[in-house]
């Protein structure tokens, strides 16, 4: 009898349930007027050939460009692809992205794969949370990015001056030697992010000077942590590219990175918890304190693990995205001297010379049109998050991608992932013109972008920190361009390799700079 029951159960799950689901989904697709999307074929079982291809691109530091090549090979802006036995949907279509992020927001959420992938290093936080947990995290973070908070640039000037300690022009020629700006921008942004978000800087720029801990001797030792954080996020990227097979990538080095990164976060949490009582007393006495995210979060929870997770999520955003924007901006400026010259002329006219700057404020940076066009164009070509995804929480559809021409709706089953590429979308020649892959800030003179331009995401989950990132990048760019009247790329023909993990930054920004003074 038990054997019969077991056989019937097996028959249900192996034969009857799949057949039922097939006809149910087919009926749903017809009801929603969906057609089958273009299919990317595999040459090896389970899409092993695709995984190998992406791993090879990863080793060449060319992941986003490889994805762009795949879209060009397929000749469509949306397609389906089977990986590891599961159907994955891919799109670079603005209307689909708008549906996923805004008009059909409740149909999609952060994929479980991403949550579990990030868990060992970052834990559960705003960038992996869904539902009430996400709403709570976002509500806690929103006050940090008020206009008043973003407009405070006095602290930023201190970090810029510490950056310039690492750039020493020759006294006679006034040219620097070969200088890699990329790592310097990462040091600057970790200092400003930790001070802005957590109330104190890790002083990474001072620690990186000859002599090491020449700043505050109580500062956390950033030098070892930087490598672990960078390596850890690269491992997260490698795991993420395996989609639901992410567990296959869990090397011992990644586990060590996680331990060190947790120790770094716990250092801040421990200090903040110790100060919590004193902060509450000061607040009760009416003493005005600058808003600090971690201090506010402690009012909601004193769970050190929860605090650590939120801290690491914000650190990833505050450090990596702005550093990437600065890196790509100067990577491009070094290869377009005419743009640099025009920008410098405008910045000097607007904000004065380096030694006598005037009125470099949030409002005036935002109103400096050509500077904003350059940042926009940099973000168009090199968005901080070039690849992203969502998972359907119900049977639904997307407006385009179905049928032989991709003009019909595309059916999405509950539990399926949709991968959308802002990097591909923002380089589509049918949207941006024949020069879509060229750096042309002037294109923004008469253009107002819609959903085809999405460097800060969109919809309810739009980046809260976008004005912070643009203001910091604008300020740092202004001060460096004021000081250096020329910038040249060491190798103008160098391929734009990506330091791509969860976010994108240039592999190197190797330049010569000429001081104006």
TrEMBL record:
Keyword Ribosomal protein: no
Source taxon at top rank: Eukaryota
Any one Gene Ontology molecular-function term assigned to this protein's record: oxidoreductase activity, acting on paired donors, with incorporation or reduction of molecular oxygen, reduced flavin or flavoprotein as one donor, and incorporation of one atom of oxygen
UniProt binding sites for heme: 463
Cofactor field: heme
PROSITE patterns (UniProt xref): CYTOCHROME_P450
InterPro entries attached to this UniProt entry: Cyt_P450, Cyt_P450_CS, Cyt_P450_E_CYP52_ascomycetes, Cyt_P450_E_CYP52_fungi, Cyt_P450_E_grp-II, Cyt_P450_sf
Keywords: Heme, Iron, Metal-binding, Monooxygenase, Oxidoreductase
One Pfam family per UniProt: p450
Keyword Iron applies: yes
Family: Belongs to the cytochrome P450 family.
Protein known as: Cytochrome P450
Native organism taxonomy: Eukaryota, Fungi, Dikarya, Ascomycota, Pezizomycotina
């Amino acid at each position: 009898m038990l054997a019969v029951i077991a056989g019937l159960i097996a028959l249900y799950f192996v034969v009857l349930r799949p057949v039922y689901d097939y006809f149910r989904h087919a009926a749903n697709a017809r009801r929603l007027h969906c057609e089958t999307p273009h299919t990317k074929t595999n040459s090896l079982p389970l899409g092993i050939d695709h995984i190998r291809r992406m791993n090879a691109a990863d080793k060449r530091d060319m992941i986003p460009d490889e994805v762009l090549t795949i879209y060009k090979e397929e000749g469509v802006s949306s397609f389906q692809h089977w990986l590891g036995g599961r159907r994955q949907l891919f799109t670079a279509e603005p209307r689909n992205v708008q549906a996923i992020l805004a008009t059909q927001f409740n149909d999609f959420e952060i994929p479980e794969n991403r949550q579990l992938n990030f868990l060992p290093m970052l834990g559960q936080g705003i960038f992996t949370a869904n539902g009430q947990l996400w709403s709570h995290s976002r509500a806690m973070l929103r006050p940090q990015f008020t206009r008043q908070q973003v407009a405070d640039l006095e602290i930023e000037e201190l970090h810029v001056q510490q950056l310039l300690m690492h750039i020493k022009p020759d006294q006679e020629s006034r040219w620097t030697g070969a200088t890699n700006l990329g790592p310097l921008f990462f040091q600057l942004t970790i200092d400003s992010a930790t001070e802005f978000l957590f109330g104190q800087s890790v002083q990474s720029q001072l620690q990186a000077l000859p002599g090491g801990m020449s700043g505050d001797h109580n500062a956390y030792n950033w030098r070892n942590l930087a490598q672990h954080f960078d390596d850890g996020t690269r491992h997260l990227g490698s795991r993420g590219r395996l989609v639901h097979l992410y567990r296959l990538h869990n090397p011992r080095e990644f586990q060590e990175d996680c331990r060190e990164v947790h120790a770094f976060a716990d250092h801040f949490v421990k200090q903040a918890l110790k100060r919590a009582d004193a902060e509450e007393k000061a607040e009760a006495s009416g003493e005005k304190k600058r808003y600090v995210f971690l201090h506010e979060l402690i009012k909601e929870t004193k769970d050190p693990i929860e605090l650590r997770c939120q801290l690491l999520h914000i650190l990833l955003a505050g450090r990596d995205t702005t550093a990437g924007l600065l890196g790509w901006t100067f990577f491009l400026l070094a290869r377009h001297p005419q743009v640099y010259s025009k920008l410098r002329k405008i910045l000097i006219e607007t904000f004065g010379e380096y030694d006598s700057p005037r009125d470099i404020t949030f409002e005036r940076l935002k109103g400096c049109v050509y500077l904003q066009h350059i940042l926009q164009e940099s973000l168009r070509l090199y968005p901080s998050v070039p690849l992203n995804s969502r998972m359907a929480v119900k049977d639904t559809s997307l407006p385009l991608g179905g049928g032989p021409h991709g003009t019909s709706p595309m059916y999405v089953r509950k539990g399926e992932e949709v991968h959308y590429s802002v990097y591909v979308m923002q380089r589509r020649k049918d949207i941006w013109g024949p020069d879509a892959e060229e750096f042309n800030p002037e294109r923004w003179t008469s253009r107002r972008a819609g959903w085809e331009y999405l460097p800060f995401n969109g919809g309810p989950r739009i980046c809260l920190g976008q004005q912070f990132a643009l203001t910091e990048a604008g300020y740092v760019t202004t001060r460096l361009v004021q000081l250096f009247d020329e910038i040249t790329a060491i190798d103008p023909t160098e391929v734009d390799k990506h330091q791509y993990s969860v976010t994108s930054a240039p592999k190197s920004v190797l330049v010569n700079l000429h001081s104006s003074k």
